[in-house]
Design brief:
There is one protein chain. A five-stranded mixed sheet has the order 5-6-7-8-9, with no helix packed on it. A four-stranded parallel sheet has the order 1-2-3-4. The radius of gyration is 19 Å and the shape is globular. The protein is built from eight helices and nine strands. The chain is an alpha/beta fold and 250 residues long. The chain folds into two domains: 102 residues, no CATH class; 116 residues. 41% of the residues lie in helices and 16% in strands.
């Protein structure tokens, strides 16, 4: 997001050519206002470009700062680069955060524009929803993608709570643009709510399959998405997490 007063960059990634393009674009703006780098969560693909923009002020959740998996995330970046013979012209380090968001509904003003932040656990432990109330922009990280079903590394119960929170935000505010970490943005409120329901249906059907010990229709799920091989891998990880979670509930 760009205004006369500030520039906000969100989760820049992946590979050097892409990051060079983003850096060049930003520099060509010759923007003289404050520069902010927002992290929606700490997955490796979302922090991978951090030190390319190390002069920016940074925003993330307090849970992001307190993460106990920092080294694991960095190891994933190193493994990605090794697998693809990638060399970077900046250091791979976990982001240092200058503006931590500690509570739900915390407010912040960037320039003259108002922001409200919400904690968003479920996908992982340190997610952050960002609502630019001045422009009606909602940045949701790895929720409400149109190219992925939910990927869960944290909790099914908390993921459902985040979906409920997103539904409330969308219904009670004039959201003009929804920005997901993967896939297309949307300006259509009905599409936003459809994405919420699609996520709910996936979680509901998977929980029913586990609790009833009944087959899950994986073919039907995969028919709605591209890249079935990787999708199957993430579905199986979801299944493992859900089984553990249900066992712990009992």
């Amino acid at each position: 997001m760009i205004s006369d007063e500030y520039l906000l960059l969100v989760d820049p990634n992946w590979f050097p050519l892409e990051l060079d393009f983003i850096e060049t674009y930003v520099e060509n703006l010759k923007h003289t206002g404050k520069r902010y780098l927002l992290f929606t969560h700490s997955d490796y693909d979302h922090i991978i470009g951090y030190h390319k923009f190390k002069s920016f002020q940074t925003i993330a959740s307090q849970n992001f700062i307190d993460s106990k998996t920092k080294q694991s995330v960095l190891d994933q970046i190193i493994a990605l680069d090794d697998d693809n013979y990638v060399k970077r012209n900046y250091e791979i380090v976990y982001p240092a955060i200058t503006t931590p968001i500690k509570s739900d509904g915390e407010q912040l003003k960037l320039g003259s524009q108002d922001y409200v932040f919400y904690q968003a656990r479920g996908h992982n432990k340190d997610g952050l929803i960002t609502h630019n109330t001045s422009q009606g922009i909602l940045i949701v990280g790895d929720y409400l993608s149109d190219i992925e079903f939910p990927y869960l590394y944290d909790s099914f119960e908390l993921y459902t709570s985040t979906l409920n929170k997103l539904e409330k935000i969308i219904n009670e505010n004039d959201i003009k643009t929804l920005v997901s970490g993967h896939g297309d943005i949307t300006h259509d409120k009905e599409e936003m709510l459809t994405r919420i329901n699609d996520s709910r249906y996936y979680i509901r059907d998977l929980e029913k399959s586990v609790t009833d010990n009944s087959p899950f229709d994986l073919d039907a799920l995969l028919s709605r998405y591209d890249f079935p091989q990787v999708m199957t891998k993430f579905h199986n990880k979801n299944l493992e997490l859900l089984k553990k979670e249900i066992k712990n509930r009992n």
